[in-house]
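Input chain follows. Return structure tokens only.
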Amino acid sequence: MAAHQTRLFARTVAVATLLCGAAPAAMAQQATASAQPVGISQEQLLALVGRLDALEKRNEELEAQILDLKAATAGSDQAIRDQAAAQPTINLGNGRPTFTSADGQFTASLRGIIQLDAAQYDQRRAGTLAADFRRGSLGDATEADRARDLGDGANFRRVRFGVEGTASGDWNYNLLFDFGGSGVEEAGKITNAYVEYAGFQPLRLRVGAFSPITGLEDATSNTASLFPERAAVTELVRGFAGGDGRTGAAVLANGDRWSVFGAVTGATVTTTAFDEQLGVIGRVTYLPIKGQDYLVHVGASANLIVNPATTGPNVAPTGAASPVRLRERPEMRVDGTRLVDTGNIDADGLRAYGLELGAQLKAFTLQAEHFWIDVERRNSVLADPSFGGWYVQGAWTLTGQPRRYNAANGGFDVPRVGKPFSLKARTWGVWELAARYSELDLDYRAGVAGTVPSASSVRGGEQQIFTIGLNWYPNNNVRFLADYQRVDVDRLSPGGTAFGAGALTPPAGAQVGQDLNIWSFRTQYAF
């Protein structure tokens, strides 16, 4: 400590010597005499003090540089962290790429669906048109041929790609295009193209082209359905005012145990007409019983064609024809031929009302729907025809995972695969057994075989189908469906030239329906 004080005092004296001249130097000589080491001159001591001052100054400069560097580094680290936080994030949950903005206000999720169906139609051998009366759609020579020998093969039922997400928090959007088809793939069409506002919870307001919910089976996504196709009656009703790519405006709302859907719709995006049809859809659902592993679902729906599409200008006094047509395929579309068909009915409107019931107990699921369909003829004294149909179907998950219930849509969804298929881990995914019976009746006062129909008759046919299937879910993206169908069609010929001229139309009252078996297999990948 004494040496340090002596050094400081010596520095002070040296500075004074430099500033004031020799007198201070003499003072320095006297002051430092006692502290001066033996053999060191005053000049040497002053030089040493100067060197120490220079070293201390350099040390201070280095310390300042270190502090500046630390500050700069800390700022750089914070900038890096801030920059990383400002970058969008990418998530691949369930195999679906999802991009989210830094503030979470914008998202974009890529969607993809691939469904490849293969089918074999087991029919008796085809005969000549004059001897083999099995027929398809009215007025369609191609279907008249194909109904006698439905085409085995494969078909991409759906190949869909698109994007969905949110914008500014409360806005949702969905763009989806489909390149699949029924019997033959298509060049591409809009399935979804809508915007939706969700700021009035629990209400959502949707405008654009979308698939309105027309019933219980329609509330289940086509990637989650028990079978490759919906029951025939639900597919028929779905096409009245709903279906894929239907333009319109809708209101949706739901809670934990209820859902409400209402929509005003126009035509589908691929339909051309002089004046588009105007449709209305309404559906309500409720869960009167709900527990941890069981529930009961009830619901009701209405699908209305208020104004059918017209074929030309509305010229007085009768106006343009506005036909409606009810026809449907068997519940497999590798071959697109329809086996039941009412033909065109000039109509002022159509009403279809449905009741639905569903239940779930652990791994067992059951659901059923019944539809009543009424057509109001236009400018006619003939009786207004009525039709209908129903189905009941059930599923049992062999591996124990239950089907899930989607409260937002009021319908069932696929079971969750908790342990994906793996040979190494010896896990097998989810296995599901399913069965369905469906009826679709498009006859109205059809009469008996061998007779000519009455003026009010509609001989569209009655179709009954029993289906049994085995479904395998290796993981949450891949699914395989193996199915057998027994199809029975009872249908009488209207006679005349209903199917075409000459041998295309069998005699009135002849049986133009058929019995057949269909074996099918679907491969699906969806994200």
